[in-house]
Amino acid sequence: MKITMIGTGYVGLVTGTCLAEFGHKITCVDKIEEKIDALKQGKIPIYEPGLDALVNKNVADGRLRFTTNLEESVPSAEAIFIAVGTPTSRRGDGYADLTYIYAAAKEVAQYLDGYTVIIDKSTVPVGTARQVSRIIKDNNPTADFDVASNPEFLREGAAISDFMRPDRVVIGVESPKAEKVIKDIYKPLYLLDTPLISTTIETAELTKYAANAFLAIKISFINEIANVCEKVNADVSDLAKAIGMDGRIGSKFLHPGPGYGGSCFPKDTLALMRIVQEHGESLRTVEAAVEVNAAQKARMVKKIRDMLGGSEAGKTIGVLGLTFKPETDDMRESPAATILPALLEKGAKIRAHDPKGMEEAKSYLPADIEYVQNSYEACEGADAVVLLTEWNQYRALDLKRIKELMKSPIFIDLRNVYDPKNMKQLGFRYTGVGRM
């Protein structure tokens, strides 16, 4: 099937590449010429494990191409995915900015030729597909098309496996014709017996927000429980394991830490609250999760300060990990972007390392952070080491070497990677999150 993917950001590039791997002929379109030129040269603008090899393979096989020319790629397409950004509005009110969605719809309308299914892949508020349909009709009254919703559920760092072996595929459609087109797109997944949920457009649009909000609630819940554990001398790791074995709860997203971040949870929880408020309702559980998350990041600053004797002024802090999670270079809403500036403001000196995120971090963090080439260099001469992101290469550090490199052996493990008893036996002053 011939498919056009509008947008070569995280969702568009991963989705387009994986659909090409399914055997479809994919044209990825983006207005940014530099990005398209780079993609044509095999340079991937984001870090996602395995994506570069998959892009290059499908380009070589003739199933994936990149262009800035929407006019040449729309008329022949049987389906068009809109996968452009929907960031939080610059007004600061939490609403999703749909400028790029509506601009894409207006431009697509000009070139439609024959029946086409327009599929919203971006995370969008309820009612967006209706607006996309209206815009297309206003700009091309004779166009033969349907608009559908097909939300993405991709985890950064595991996006390819999530797409190729999804828990489910959700589609919101209004016509059997559009439903058939989308089911044909995902036909390769039938061999895996992947559940495909066909529902109304509004339900599909709301599903993505509801899923992310629920996961955000789980994270904020376990972080609050971790804080209680510290007060009553309990261990949150054992607690999380015990409650996670309950099939009604599940073990995923019960890992305490410095708070959630990334491109989805922060903006999607805010957007969902605004959607709900517009309809005269409230989601107090989600509101609480957002508040808890902000407080958790501030609490981590205090934890670090307390371990340094009440003041970070003049102290050197080695930081391991900057991105909001491992296996990505994404710094959006990373806890590091809140925690590190607060420490710098009070006079700390920071030496930081991240396997993939240091270049990106320079756009999000103050200029006076020193970036180093490896984890041991970050620890050299440090008054304390803070483990902020649980990259695999930080899970088996030479702890004896680190202790020798440090000025004072203070280890602040905000991801609970290391065993507290072992760390104390090695001579570290150690603290985790919610652990004895």
CATH superfamily of the largest domain: NAD(P)-binding Rossmann-like Domain
Overall CATH architecture of the largest domain: 3-Layer(aba) Sandwich
The biggest sheet, with number of strands, parallel, antiparallel or mixed sense and barrel status, is: 6 strands, parallel
* First-to-last CA distance: 57 Å
How many domains is the backbone divided into? 2
CATH class of the largest domain: Alpha Beta
Radius of gyration, taken over Cα atoms and rounded to an integer in Å:
24 Å
Number of helices: 17
Strand content: 5-15%
Architecture overview:
The protein is elongated and about 75 Å long. It has 436 residues and is α/β, with parallel strands linked by helices. It folds into 2 domains: 2-199, NAD(P)-binding Rossmann-like Domain (Rossmann fold); 213-431, NAD(P)-binding Rossmann-like Domain (Rossmann fold), CATH 3.40.50. It has helices spanning 10-21, 33-40, 51-60, 70-73, 99-111, 128-139, 159-164, 176-185, 201-232, 236-244, 265-278, 284-307, 335-345, 358-361, 375-379, 399-405, 420-425, and strands at residues 2-6, 25-29, 64-67, 79-82, 116-120, 145-149, 169-172, 196-199, 316-320, 349-353, 370-371, 384-387, 410-413, 429-431. Helix 9 crosses helix 11 and helix 9 runs parallel beside helix 12.
Summarize the structure.
This protein has two domains: 2-199, Rossmann fold (3-Layer(aba) Sandwich); 213-431, NAD(P)-binding Rossmann-like Domain (Rossmann fold, 3-Layer(aba) Sandwich), CATH 3.40.50. The chain is 43% helix and 14% strand. It is built from 17 helices and 14 strands.
